[in-house]
Design brief:
77% of the residues lie in helices and 0% in strands. It is an all-alpha fold. The termini are far apart. It comes from Leptospira kmetyi. This is Histidine kinase.
């Protein structure tokens, strides 16, 4: 369902494209997913993946100048 965005995201990261473009695609993809999970049950793997996202966001935040 989101394969195209995820593949494109991988390409943008591999090509070291502008951070704004990468974060914008991440946001668009997460927004689409959020819409689709309303009223849906998820497994423990979902929460584990969200924890990894949280950890990655901490690293990303450390790269953004204050």
């Amino acid at each position: 369902m989101y394969e195209t965005n995820i593949e494109l995201l991988g390409q943008l990261i591999q090509e070291k494209r502008k951070p704004y473009a990468i974060l914008s695609l991440i946001q668009d993809t997460v927004d689409s997913m959020r819409t689709d999970v309303e009223e849906v049950s998820v497994s423990e793997k979902f929460y584990e993946a969200c924890q990894k996202i949280s950890e990655a966001l901490i690293q990303i935040d450390s790269e953004i100048p204050e």
